Each structure stands twice: as C-alpha cells, then as structure tokens.
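Step 1: inspect the first sequence and its tokens.
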Amino acid sequence: MFAMIKSNKCVAAFLGVVAITLAWSASRPAGADTSAAQGRPNILVIITDQQRADMLSCTGNPFVKTPNLDSLARNGARFERAYCANPVCVPSRFSMFTGRLPSFIGMENNSHITNAVPQEVFDHAMGFVFRQAGYQTVYGGKVHLPQSGPKQGWATRYGFDSFLGTDPRDELAVRCDKFLREKHDRPFLLVASFMNPHDICYMAINDTRKDPAVGPLAKARLPHEPPAEACLDDAMKLPAGVSEKEFFENMCPPLPANFGVPQNEIGCRSKLPKYGPPPYNTWVRKHWTERDWRLHRWAYARLTERADGNIGVVLKALRESGLEEQTLVIFTSDHGEMDGSHQLEQKGTPYEEDIRVPFIVSWKGKTKAGLVNQEHLVSSGLDLIPTMCDFAGVPVPPDFKGCSVRALAEGREPATTWRDFLVVENLNTRVVRRASWKYVAGTGVEPREMLFDTQHDAGEMKSLADEAHRAQLEEGCRLLQQWCRDHGDRLHDRYETDHKEKQP
C-alpha cells in the first residue's frame, strides 16, 4: 500500500479513525438485520476524480483495463451521454451533493470554494436528505466542497459522518471494506470518494522544463502529498523487461485522433492568459513532444486502473458481506480529462473529454443487466440525488430540477418527457448539449462562440460558428438563456450574445 503513516500526527489520526469505527461497530447489535427488512436499499455512491467517460474497458477502450467497473456495468445500466455540471472538482461536487447548479451560488471554478452557501441548500444536501429518511450517512475520501469544515476535509455540513480524512486512495478502500463487513441495523448511504486518476495532474504541474533555468524534465516531487507522488511515480514506470522502442511501438497509447487544435477555437481558451487554461496547460500545448503526450496517456490509464483496483476491494466486500442484492450502487466521476485531445491536459474546458463522465447505476436483480443507454442526456449533478431518492422511496427536496434515471436503468420509459438538451457550466463558458450538436458561449474575447456538429465531427475539430449556421447559433443562444432562467444561473448575463437581441 502506498499510503504510509509517516508521523505522530498521522498515527493519531489513524487511531482516531479506528476508535470511531469500533464505536460504530459496538453500537450495532450483533446479527442485526440489514435494510432489506425495512424495504429500502443500502446505497453506495462511488466517485473517482478526473475519469473521463471512455476510460472504461467496457466502452471498448483497448488501452485501459477496468474489470471491476466493467462488472458493475454488467449488472446494471451505463449511461453514455452523462455530463457533469462543471468540469472542475469543487463546482461539480457541489452540484452532485446539493442537486443545484454551481452558478446558484456564483461558483464557476475551484477558487470559488469560499462562496457562501445558503442554509436551505445545506438543509437539502444529500446526507441530510437520507439521514432524515432514517439512513446512516457515511462519507469516506476526498470532499472538496464549499464550507465543508476544517481544511475542507469533512462532509458534516452536507449531512455525513466522516470516517476517513487522511488518504482517499488505497486506504479508503480498506476503510470501506471494514465498514461493509460490519453489521448494520438500518440502511446506509456510503459515499466512497477516490482521488485517482487525478494524480495525473502533477505530470504537467511538476514538469520542471517550464523554467528554462531548471533544465531537463525531473521526476515529479510532491512533498505535500506523498501518496500522490508514489502513485504518479508508479504509473510512469515502463513495464519491466521491455525496451523503450518496443514500449512505444506496441504498448503505449498513440496520440488521440483529435490531437490537433480546433479550427476557430473560442477566444477565452486560446488567446488571453487571463481567460485561458492554467499556465502549465498553455505551456504543454506549446512545448510537449509526442513522447510526452503518449507517456501522459500511459500514466493516465495506469492511474485509472489503480482506482479500479481500489473499487474492486469495495465491491468484493459488498458481495462477501451478503449485501450486493440489497444495495444500489452508483458510480460516476466529478469530471473528465483532456489527455492529449486538442493538445490539452487536465480539466476545465468545454470539450467532450472534460465534460462527459461515466455514469453507472447498478442494483443486482433490479436494474437491467448490461444496458447501455446512448439516448438520454443525464446530468450527474442534477440527477444523482433524484435517482437515489426514487430507488429508496425518499421524497425529492423541493425545487430540485433534476430527473431520476431509475426507469431508464430498469429498461423502462420514463414517466415524463425527458430533457432534449442540457447545459454544462464552466469558468468563462457555457455549453448547450443536444442530440447531434453542441453550442458553446464564452465571455468577452472573440470568437465568443463555438458550434460543433457532433454527429459528423465527434472529435470537435472544426467550429461552425459562422454566418452559414446562424440559425443554430441563435437556437443555442435561446436554449442557453432559457436554461439559465429555469435553473437560476446568477451569472448568465456574461454569456449573452448579439443573438439575444434577435429573440422576440
């Protein structure tokens, strides 16, 4: 295990976690019935960080092996058209745990973690919704939510008890294993929030070639996050006994098909550093070689497999504890990762690689085994809590705008008409996603819009934001403003374009 206890402070924290866990265990009567006796499922929500939708071997990706998540998909439904609320950590997680879009509190990126959250939002946060319904609500791993407590490390503000705040990598899997093998006298909601494959971030952040005075690329060093350092170092290793030539010829993923920079890319992504990607992302776009990008793709796949291995520990405990057929499991990620597409890495862009996320809903014997839904647009932020409530028979909080995917996951038609578009928020951009096209509006810097025919240009290589496509641009603008009004986007004025004046 890479998560090592290296200080007295860490030892004290570790013993505190053990004490809490033992206290919970002692409070439960031996042999107590699980939630099945009460007619409500346990709920296990598994979240990874920065795992894009196609980073699952069950999607046909030949460069990554995720047998544990594949097994989850075989027992349930996988939604191919699921999108995060915002392609960076804090806004996306805020949406998942509150059912609100991040713009509701004026949030667009991670630096807005200090934005005020109204008490009514906390009152209807995920943990409190299920705690009030009689669930034991437990959170382990990465939190990264606004006003979530000391050092942003606790989830109590969102209605959870927290049993792990030290390492959301390998250690989290061990803690979840222990929790699931205990006796439970009421249904539980367990959130297992894993860090990886997020550690791929540090490959660019710590590339010392950004400073010409430093010289060649040095090994990434993360003294503030020893587990991250170990994970990334391990992922960067080439297979034993394989020459570098053989590795690049036969094993390392090639550059993505959409490696090039899109034609007519939106201005806030390409021209002004003030509006553009982080400095390290700008630097790698200009300076990384094909070798650098391919190594990035190799390491990203290995970190994804590491996360899948941790998830396998949790799913094994669920099976061996006899809880599998009594537990709804939902898997998703907070956002995606560019991983070389458009010569970008990390997150925070309006492109599909960043905004589309895996979304699996699995309850053995209840959901339709092996279903792949390629039709319905799902918002992981808006739809997560309503889906959980639907399966558990818990009332959805008032004013929630999301939809339950339960009927879809069971292979049935939804009771009401499904949305035909959704919006993804981001710093300086808004995305309108429809069936076969995608509209992007940006702030202040020309060009302010992009339009992609995703049916014929899935890699988003050429923006069609021109006079010949004015009708679609106007439609995108109209839908965006409609969504902003319906969902209380307090920042929508920044994304108005000249098309708005043409609307009646």
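Step 2: inspect the second sequence and its tokens, then contrast the two.
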Amino acid sequence: MVKANAQGGPALVWLRDDLRLADQPALAAAVASGAPILCLYVFDEESPGLRPLGGASRWWLHHSLTALGEALAAIGGRLDILQGRAGDVVPAVARAAGASCAFWTRRYEAATIEIDTAVKAALVADGLRVESFNGQLLFEPWTLRTKMGDYYRVFTPFWRSCLALPDPGQPTPAPRKLTGAEWPAKAPKRAALKSLGLLPTKPDWAGGLRGAWTPGEAGAKARLAAFLDDGIASYASHRDRPDIPATSRLSPHLRFGEISARQAFAAARHAVDAGKAPAKDVEKFVAELGWREFSYHLLFHNPDLAHKNFQARFDAFPWRQPSSAELKAWKTGRTGFPIVDAGMRELWHTGTMHNRVRMIAASFLVKDFMADWRIGEDWFWDTLCDADPASNAASWQWVAGSGADAAPYFRVFNPILQGLKFDPLGAYVRTWVPELAALPDEWIHKPWEAPPLVLKAANVALPRDYPLPVVDHAMARDRALAAFTSLKAATA
C-alpha cells in the first residue's frame, strides 16, 4: 500500500451495487487519476428511507464482498468495509485520507439519490473532484421520454425508444493493477465482514443457496458464458419452461452488479455476430434486459413503487387478508397446487424461482387468495437472492394489475393449465414436490383428481402425503373477477 503523494490525496471509490472490476467506470476513473486508491463499501442500515436487505440478499452480499475483496487484493488493492450512515462515513474517510477525488456508480432509488446528493455536496465543499457514472443500466432513466415529454408507462414503446438510442457501447476490461492507499489513521474504524452478521447461523438455512450459486464476478462471468454456450439458442422457445434449463440465471449477479447490463447486452449481441446464437433468441433475451431497464425507469419516476399502487384506482380494491394458514401454505409450498408449490419450494431452497413460475405463484396469491400484492412483494424481497428494488416491485404490480403496462386484473392464471402447458412432463414438479414423483404425467398437476388406484400405485395418500387444494380455483377466480368489477364500477 502507498501513502498519498504530495501532489494530491488518494482517490476514493465508493462501491455499492456494482461489485465488480470489469466495466466498472468508477474504478476506471480512479485508476486514470494516477492516485493511490481507497475502495470503500459502506453497509448502511441506518440512513432514513433505506430498505433493509432480505435474508437471501444478505447471504449473497456476504459472498459477493468476499469475492470482490479477493479480486482487488490480487491486483494490488483492498476492499475496506465500514458500517453506519454513508452520509457520515464517506466524508469522514475522505477527510481523514486527504482524498483528492471520489467516484461511484449512480443509484436510482429516492433514498439513495438523497444520500448520494448529500455526500457529493459534502465532498465538493471539502474541495474534492466528485464524479458519478452509469454502471448499472444500459440507459439512464431520465434519457427516455415520450413525444409528449413524459416518462413511459408501457414497455413496448419504451424499449423501442431505447433501441433507437446510440448503442450502449463495448464493456471495458478490468484493470490489471492498481495502487492501494494506506488506511488513514484517523478514519472511522473498519468492520470485519463477519461482524455485519449477513450469514444465517441458527438455523443455517443457506445450504441450498450454497449448492445453487457462486456469487461474485467470476461466477457471473461463468454463468453468462455457460448460458451463451448452452441455453440461449433455445431461449425464445423454452424460456417459459421451468423443466428446461434455458434461462440465463444472471439476475442475482446483475442485482449486485457483479456483471453489468452492458456486458450481458454486448456478449449476447456478439454471439449473433459470431454465428453462435440465433438472432431471435438473443433479441428475446435482450428484451428481458429491457424489462429490467423499464422497471428502473418506473422506479425512478415513482419512488414508492414497492409500497404504493401505480394505478391509484387500486387503492380502493377490496383486498382480503389471507388467513395465517393460507399464507403459510403459500410460503411453504403446501397449497395443493403442484406448480405453485414447486416454485415456492424452489424459492426457499435456492433463493430463486423460474420467472414463469413466479408469475403463477404471484397470481395465485393475488387472485386466488385475493391478497394484497405487497404481501407477496415483501416475501420475495426476503427470500430472493435477486431481490431487486425495481424489478421485484414492478413485476408484482404487473401481476396484480395495479402497475404500469400491467396484465389486466381479470387475467387469472389457472395453476393446473399453466402446469400442463409449461411443465408438460411434470419434471419441474417432480424435482421440487418429490412426494408426487411417481404419479403419471396426466395427473401430476392435479393429483386430487387422480383415480384411487393411480394414487395407490404411486404410493400417494391425500392429504397425508400431499395437501388437497387450499382453495377452489374456480370459486376464487369468480371472487376475484367480482371484486375487480366492483372496483371498475366504483372508480368509473
């Protein structure tokens, strides 16, 4: 480590949801400054308005910070972790170090924007050069406007507008070497990663997460490479099939910035140019990156997206409070609808769920139980490794019918038909609901309708081995549609 030179103090890089070295403009700017570098991560659960991370995200963060620290050490740097209000901690470190400049990746939630604005003002007042960069999105939310000058509320014209903009460009490589600065003696005390308490202990429920994921930039690169080699060629036709490994599984890596959207975008487009992937599959994948962009566009313009109905008329919707038994059945995968239960068990075990099944499980909660979408959004926030502040909220509101570009409330997913269509051989259900594994394909999505001899041959006794449906879907659908009709009448 090197002390600040006489011509100027060290460069400060404040890392947040951008835990990588490649395509990292804030780090690149610090390297270009020629100054020794301090790389900070501030674990902030104290600043007003910040939403605490859920359990699965905390697990991921621990391992992502571990990986980043090792990667920085390998090129001469160091990751310094602190705990407390970022608005106090970052300026204090900069002053103690006599920093000359500070760099970070922009954030888009209202509370984080407020924090970043205050920190920038404090650092500029202290004489530092401060720059922020777009390292998280393909396009900044404020750069997309309708012809009327408003923000977009419908995805298709939004994405068309995005694709009409100049290409996001090529990702930049990671620095091969950097010069780390000594930790200033009078700076706030650094925190050991373990002291943050991010990992579960009693009980340790993260075994499935450890088996399913490799957090960190190297894991993200490997995941993208594997997808481009094996999955993307059938993406357009198989992305809705939870029984086929055709999705990228990049979402948690994107959530923590271990890989940038620009890296994924450029790599996918390159696969077409190199003749390694069909254009239709790549464009469908790129459009899913577009949905992430759209979600951040909505969040930037609607800071309360996770808590407030995007469509105000839904404030009058007659949500019902599900019973504790109903809610427990949904959370634990014991609703009696196998495709729903498979998804909820996959979520609990691995910290993720196939996107099609997310829609089915969310529709079940919101339409069959007629529960407020915020109950589901909060559960996913706690249990998803990729619990993204924009995508999680926007997607739940989409299913509920209360959001932008929403599926109409009267679109109610039938869990039986959805299972038969997207898991036709029952492979997904058999993986996560093994008590039904011996049932024939035609009955695995509706075991309560199977003839007694079929159940007996499969060694399945209902409800001993698997619950009967907790709700009559046809009745629940009618109830939901009646509630929506009453809302329309009341808000006409």
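Step 3: confirm your contrast with the notes below.
The chain has three domains: 1-136, 137-171+217-301, 312-491. Confidence is low (pLDDT under 50) at residues 1-6.
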